[in-house]
Amino acid sequence: MTELLGLVFSPWTEKARWALDVRGVPYTFRHYQPLLGEPALRLKLRRLTGRVSVPVLTADDGRVLSDSADIARWADGRGAGPTLFPAEHEAEIARIVDLSERALAAGRARALSRMLADDEALAEMAPPPIRRAHGALAARLGAFGVRRTLRKYGGHEDGAEAHLRTMVAALDELRATLARSATTGDGPRTLLGRFTFADIAMSQVLVNVAPPAALKLGAASRRSFSDPELRDRYADLVAWRDELYRAFRTA
Can the peptide bond before residue 86 be classed as cis, meaning omega within 30 degrees of 0? Predict the structure, then answer.
């Protein structure tokens, strides 16, 4: 059986899961435990130095894929359902995926910076046994993990204003592209006139604006991932994301 290793609250993991689910590809999901799970992940990826991250898919044919877009492409060649990478839209999908990656990185930096000021949210990042037994220790462990993540991916030194500009530029582009796109009958608008991986990728940018109800987050973590500066300004895009979930995220 194909296995997907990931984090339930990660938009990168969600991109991979959504692609697998919408194509009807069977797989087993396994939750990745940061820090504790890293040695095994390095062995799986055959990468003893450098940065490693999830999602990681181990296919039933032995292939190991460690990028959400690569996993989605793999899924697109299997199962059935909407074609996620139609040939006529390849270049535009690549452009939109790149835009989403930049915005996701900026959104992550903003969310984790908010989390560092919220001990309750930090405690929710710690493993449940530690959280139940040692509340104060859980918050310190959570802070260690959050700071490590910020260092790991970099960019946090760019500052809050730079990250805000990146997010605003991506969300404005999303709004403009949706306005130009053709409607798809009674369903939600899509970026390219049909549902593709571009919609999945850009919908995840909104996790760091207003997390979807389906995302498994504690109340304090949800507070950290919500961006008051952007939530009201882009309420139409949050509504679009929610409609997209209702129409295409059935698993």
Answer: no
